[in-house]
């Protein structure tokens, strides 16, 4: 059976994004306790390395655009695959903190290189009707990566944390080869210059950028503290099971394109924030209950992956001729929010407690969802219809 162009690109993108986001981006936090013990690193050093991985991600986001403008949109996805493989190999064999940092930063940068360029690849090579589905498939690749990462974590419990990173290196190399085979080469991406172009783009993206700021802030709080909450009162196997559950339920994100076509992207985004709010509230108020934690992970997986996919669909609808730039802009906003949110959380946890912080974060997510829902109901989301 011959795959359509949209399905070919969707599968290739899902593989690359799945490794870059679902595996490489979260493997550091998952293996951090073992890294701390094996390399005898202080909390300060471990924290600095964690922050540096976000710097690598931001660098990838910023540099992907200029590279695509010169060499076409497939070039950054290839660079991202190489960075993911090289970074994971470096971490696998790291015996010193500086080597660990170099590898983690390289692996962390992969997500920045690969995600946004697929928006341009899809809008330039896939028919308008197939675009939402292709973009949703690509984004939902993260779920598959999380499922695999959860399995690797369970396997590593019997061996070494280095096994996780070694498998990620192999997966990144395989995904890069699949990407080169299935993703068509495109010409250089036009990049309009001048303040007028930037101003018009900013105006078009005011609402999705605001959504991105709230969405990524609440998402990173969940991922930062979920394992901490779960490991306090539940068996060690609960942590990899949590990641696997998020990945499995996140597969519903594949349907984001069809749902957005029916309800409108702003409404879908609003529902995702409400869903994540429910997951955070369950984790914060009943994190010592296996049943509540399982429900929280499943609910979060659906909201997390659909929330990521709808941002790609939404920005491509609003600015189809500059889809990658639009998506990158929102991702940069989200990346900055992701850096700020844990720092703020760390400052208030000693006074409020982790459970209260999670409950407050749930309230922020719920409020953001309600505001966005009201904005869409008042006609503010109509602009998204113009791209259809």
Assembly type of the shown chains?
Answer: single chain
Strand content: under 5%
- How far apart lie the N and C ends? 29 Å
| CATH level-4 homologous superfamily of the largest domain | MFS general substrate transporter like domains
Count every beta strand, where a strand is a DSSP E run of 2 or more residues: 0
Annotated CATH architecture of the largest domain? Up-down Bundle
Number of self-contained structural domains:
2
Give me the strand/helix succession. HHHHHHHHHHHHHHH
Would you write up a description of this structure?
The chain has 388 residues and is mainly α. The chain has two domains: 1-180, Up-down Bundle (Growth Hormone, Chain: A); 196-379, Growth Hormone, Chain: A (Up-down Bundle), CATH 1.20.1250. 83% of the residues lie in helices and 0% in strands. It is built from 15 helices and no strands. The chain has helices spanning 5-39, 43-71, 74-93, 97-114, 117-125, 131-156, 161-182, 195-204, 206-233, 238-249, 256-263, 265-286, 290-318, 323-352, 354-377. The longest helix is centred in the first third of the chain and has 35 residues, at 5-39. It starts with a helix and ends in an 11-residue tail after the last helix. Mean pLDDT is 85; it is low at 381-388.
Which helices and strands appear, and what pairs or packs with what?
Layout: H1 5-39, H2 43-71, H3 74-93, H4 97-114, H5 117-125, H6 131-156, H7 161-182, H8 195-204, H9 206-233, H10 238-249, H11 256-263, H12 265-286, H13 290-318, H14 323-352, H15 354-377
Helix pairs in contact: 1-2, 1-3, 1-4, 1-5, 1-6, 1-7, 2-3, 2-4, 2-14, 3-4, 3-7, 5-6, 5-14, 6-7, 6-10, 6-11, 6-13, 9-12, 9-13, 9-14, 9-15, 10-13, 11-12, 12-13, 12-15, 13-14, 14-15
């Amino acid at each position: 059976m011959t795959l359509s162009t949209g399905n070919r690109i969707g599968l290739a993108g899902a593989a690359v994004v799945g490794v870059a986001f679902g595996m490489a981006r979260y493997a550091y936090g998952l293996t951090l306790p073992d890294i701390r013990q094996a390399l005898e690193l202080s909390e300060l050093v471990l924290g600095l390395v964690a922050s540096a991985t976000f710097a690598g991600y931001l660098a990838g986001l910023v540099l992907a655009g200029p590279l695509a403008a010169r060499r076409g949109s497939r070039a950054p996805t290839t660079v991202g695959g190489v960075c993911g493989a090289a970074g994971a190999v470096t971490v696998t064999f790291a015996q010193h903190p500086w080597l660990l940092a170099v590898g983690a930063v390289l692996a962390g940068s992969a997500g920045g290189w690969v995600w946004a360029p697929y928006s341009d690849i899809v809008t330039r090579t896939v028919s308008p009707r197939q675009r939402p589905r292709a973009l949703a498939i690509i984004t939902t690749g993260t779920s598959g990566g999380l499922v695999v990462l959860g399995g690797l974590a369970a396997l590593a419990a019997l061996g070494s944390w280095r096994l996780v990173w070694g498998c990620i290196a192999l997966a990144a190399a395989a995904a890069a080869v699949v990407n080169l085979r299935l993703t068509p080469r495109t010409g250089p991406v036009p990049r309009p210059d001048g303040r007028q172009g930037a101003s018009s783009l900013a105006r078009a993206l005011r609402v999705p950028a605001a959504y991105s700021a709230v969405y990524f802030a609440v998402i990173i709080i969940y991922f930062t503290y979920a394992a901490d909450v779960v490991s306090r009162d539940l068996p060690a196997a609960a942590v990899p099971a949590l990641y696997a559950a998020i990945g499995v339920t996140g597969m519903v994100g594949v349907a984001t394109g069809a749902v957005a076509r029916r309800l409108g992207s702003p409404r879908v985004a609003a529902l995702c924030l409400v869903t994540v709010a429910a997951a955070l509230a369950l984790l914060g108020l009943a994190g010592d209950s296996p049943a509540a934690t399982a429900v929280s992970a499943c609910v979060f997986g659906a909201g997390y992956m659909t929330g990521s996919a709808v941002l790609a669909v939404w920005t491509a609808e609003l600015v189809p001729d500059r889809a990658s730039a639009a998506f990158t802009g929102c991702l940069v906003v989200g990346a900055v929010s992701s850096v700020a949110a844990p720092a703020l959380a760390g400052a208030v946890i000693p006074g409020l407690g982790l459970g209260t912080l999670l409950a407050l974060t749930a309230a922020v997510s719920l409020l953001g969802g309600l505001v966005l829902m009201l904005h869409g109901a008042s006609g503010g989301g109509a602009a998204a219809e113009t791209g259809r």
